[in-house]
Design a protein that fits this description.
By secondary structure, this protein is α/β, with parallel strands linked by helices. The protein contains 25 helices and 30 strands. The radius of gyration is 25 Å and the shape is globular. It starts with a helix and ends with a helix. The model has no long low-confidence stretch (mean pLDDT 96).
Length: 758
């Protein structure tokens, strides 16, 4: 079954004309990203857009949502007045399955535990024409790559790793649920025209090096915020040499450098992947417009003319990397990693090794890892670490079971987990003797912030390729370098691991009995979406109140967050995922992971009404009950990480009026704007130091709120002195209207109501 074939045919038929028109408009050759972006404008333009400055309205081809974020997105969508979605959309049940004992039991437990949520998602999908992928079908990004991604397309997804689809030449961008509502409602989707980073890949990977090492190297170069506001476009003969799923791995983890998305040009590797996943018709159509699905030749000849930044990596010379701990951009070449472990006093013993996830669960990944597992068996090596395998989809799982790879893992003690996110997002009931003991784990996942995988601040999490993870699992030590070191087998012999081998695609093709897809009703008008009024997991939404029309005065400081404050710090996942459909209940995790700059503690802030210290959510609820607004102050790249809009909705719901930081991560800033919040940045970052614990805060200039016009924040200190500081914002006219209306959804609701009356 080929999904959306008529839509793809229509896009490709119009593509040559749109690309040529864009060349004339810009007066020069085009990068791939520019071709796709200008081909997806919501309305034609006679004026070129300026990268990094112009806000642009786009018309994405599709929307994908995972079960944790889909709940809030669809609760918002059902209030906007439409009978069905305007573009192809899907829901994927992958986030709510906790890894505990093994695939079968964990899946059965999840289906029972989450029945209320799954029934809600299935019924609301049925009603509004949304494709539904059942629990166990697989992780959203792998399923999208196997079924929906296509070269030259533009999609959005309510998950930060949506860019995975760039492995098939698609611009795929992670967003909050409110953005998804816009697109599903048939409205334009707004994005600041991204800057472009070109990564030229030369040479070809060999030996222990893998596609994962490309993005681990890039993360080390650009850091967690170096890609903010940018599309990363990979090109060169090295890029064409990588498998489509390897390209997907690189694009997936581009989220860790803050990139809007990443993309590769269409090539034979993508064509092969489309064909083996039963989409030969899409490959044939793409072949017909191939030149428009790649950068123009002049771009290859002189890339510095066309990209804002160019990075070059020679794959012939690339060695494996291990990144971490606590941040995905701390990049260590494998040859230097053992020394780093010793010098930093990181726990050398490797306790758990985990492969799979949406980033690295392809047939190629699994087969190369299995080749090392087979060596362990043949060379009589005892695996020293716990070892888990997370297949990305039922298609992959069924195929690797058929081909004996799961049996190989079983022979070395590997535990196969459900086709779900699991430990990658904190859905892991880890067995550990002392949760406060410093320990090390290594994964082939994408994100390794403190507490991310197992909820334990004492866990040092490192990220590497599945091959390196498997090799280190066999050794049981972070100081082992499989390229140079030997291991003692059960006979006491010194043996060395050979380079991993595998297959880009399964030699016998893919196979599956039940992929897990459920098509929506042809006519959903009679379908009932039931949300129990007494449910503690689902709650119908009430509209946020509009702005009062005056400057905001007498606000309290809720917390001055110190250092890294990701969406995991603002709205934790793990056990809190079950409340993703209940705004009031999940708000009890608001900012409980953020470090208070005044006492270096988490979830302990001063209540200015009582003078006592208490939990952040409880303190904010006290302010809300008293009718007092508040301000959250933060550091650099505030809100990096996941796309979860709960990190914006919770402060909004509890009465926080503004977030004032040194800088924002892109998705989080947009989410705040969508919910009618004030997202502000210090004009002088040193002003962060002026914020005092007992400050009463005024925000002035809102009655003249305008694009490009700074606001003033007055800090009224307890000793009677004041500091007036200038703060900036990036709101355009439309986003200011969202603020005034109390949120973007209020604007949409009013538009549909007006249209019905007319």
């Amino acid at each position: 079954m080929v999904f959306d074939i008529d839509m793809i045919k229509k896009l490709y038929a119009a593509l040559p004309g749109k690309v040529e028109a864009t060349r004339k408009l810009l007066g020069r050759p085009l990068t791939l990203a520019e071709k796709i972006l200008y081909a997806h404008l919501y309305a034609p333009t006679a004026t070129p857009f300026e990268r990094g400055k112009s806000y642009v309205e786009f018309a994405p081809d599709r929307v994908a949502m995972q079960d944790a974020t889909a709940q809030m997105a669809l609760l918002q969508f059902m209030t906007c007045g439409r009978a069905s979605v305007a573009v192809p959309s899907t829901v994927h049940c992958d986030h709510l399955i906790q890894a505990k004992t093994g695939a079968a039991q964990d899946l059965a437990t999840a289906i029972d535990t989450n029945k209320e949520v799954y029934d809600f998602l299935a019924s609301i999908s049925d009603k509004y024409g949304i494709g539904f992928w059942k629990p166990g079908a697989g992780i959203i990004h792998q399923v999208v790559l196997e079924n929906y991604a296509f070269p030259g397309g533009l999609m959005i997804g309510t998950d930060s790793h949506t860019p995975n689809a760039g492995g098939l030449g698609m611009l795929a961008i992670g967003v909050g649920g409110a953005d998804a509502v816009d697109v599903m409602a048939g409205l334009a989707w707004e994005l600041k025209m991204p800057k472009l980073i070109g990564v030229k890949l030369t040479g070809k990977l060999s030996g222990w090096a893998s596609p994962k090492d490309v993005i681990l190297r890039v993360a080390g170069i650009l850091t967690v915020k170096g890609g903010t506001g940018c599309i990363v476009e990979y090109f060169g003969e090295g890029a064409d040499s990588l498998s489509a799923t390897g390209k997907g791995t690189i694009c997936n983890m581009g989220a860790e450098i803050g990139a809007t998305c990443s993309v590769f040009a269409y090539d034979t590797k993508m064509s092969d992947y489309l064909k083996i996943t039963s989409r030969a018709e899409v490959a044939a159509l793409a072949d017909g417009v191939r030149e428009h699905l790649r950068p123009d030749e002049a771009v290859y000849a002189d890339p510095s003319k066309f990209y804002d930044q160019v990075i070059e990596i020679n794959l012939d010379e690339l060695e494996p990397y291990v990144n971490g701990p606590f941040t995905p951009d701390l990049a260590w070449p494998l040859s230097k990693f053992a020394q780093a472990v010793k010098e930093n006093n990181w726990p050398e013993k490797l306790e758990v090794a985990l492969i799979g996830s949406c980033t690295n669960s392809s047939y190629e990944d699994i087969s190369r890892s299995a080749s090392l597992a087979k060596q362990a068996i043949d060379k009589q090596l005892k695996v020293q670490s716990e070892f888990t395998i997370t297949p990305g989809s039922e298609l992959v799982r069924y195929t690797i079971e058929r081909d004996g790879l799961l049996d190989t893992f079983d022979q070395i003690g590997g535990v196969v987990l459900a086709n779900a996110c699991g430990p990658c997002i904190g859905q892991w009931a880890r067995h550990i003797d002392d949760p406060n003991r410093k320990n090390s784990i290594i994964t082939s996942f994408n994100r390794n912030f403190a507490k991310r995988n197992d909820g334990l601040a004492s866990t040092h999490a490192f990220v590497a390729s599945p091959e390196i993870v498997t090799a280190l699992a066999i050794a049981g030590s972070l100081s082992f370098n499989p390229m140079t070191d030997t291991l003692k087998n059960v006979k006491g012999e010194d043996v060395k691991l050979d380079e991993p081998t595998g297959f880009e695609l399964p030699p016998k093709g893919f196979d599956v009995k039940d992929a897990g897809y459920q098509a929506p009703a042809e006519d959903g008008s009679g379908v009932q979406v039931i949300v129990s009024p007494t449910s503690d997991r689902l709650q119908l939404l009430e509209a946020f109140k509009a702005w009062e029309g005056v400057d905001l005065k007498g606000l309290k400081l809720l917390i001055k967050a110190k250092g890294k404050c990701t969406t995991d710090h603002i709205s934790m996942a793990g056990p809190w995922l079950k409340y993703r459909g209940h705004l009031d209940n999940i708000s009890n995790n608001m900012l409980i992971g953020a470090v208070n700059a005044f006492n270096d503690k988490t979830d302990t802030v001063k209540n200015e009404l009582t003078g006592e210290y208490g939990a952040v959510p409880a303190t904010q609820r006290a302010y809300k009950a008293a009718g007092i607004g508040s301000v959250v102050v933060g550091d650099e790249n505030y809100g990096e990480g996941s796309s979860r809009e709960h990190a914006a909705m919770e402060p909004r719901h509890l009465g926080v009026r503004a977030i004032l930081v040194k800088s924002f991560a892109r998705i989080h800033e947009t989410n705040l704007k969508k919910q009618g919040m004030l997202a502000l940045t210090f004009n002088d970052k040193d002003d962060y130091e002026k914020i005092q614990e007992d400050d009463s805060i005024d925000i002035l200039g809102l009655t003249e709120f305008a694009p490009g016009k700074p606001l003033t924040v007055v800090l009224n200190h307890k000793n009677g002195t004041q500091d007036a500081i200038t703060v900036n914002h990036t709101y355009n006219e439309q986003q200011i209207e969202w603020f005034k209306a109390g949120g973007a959804l209020n604007v949409i609701r009013a538009q549909f109501a007006a249209a019905k009356q007319n």
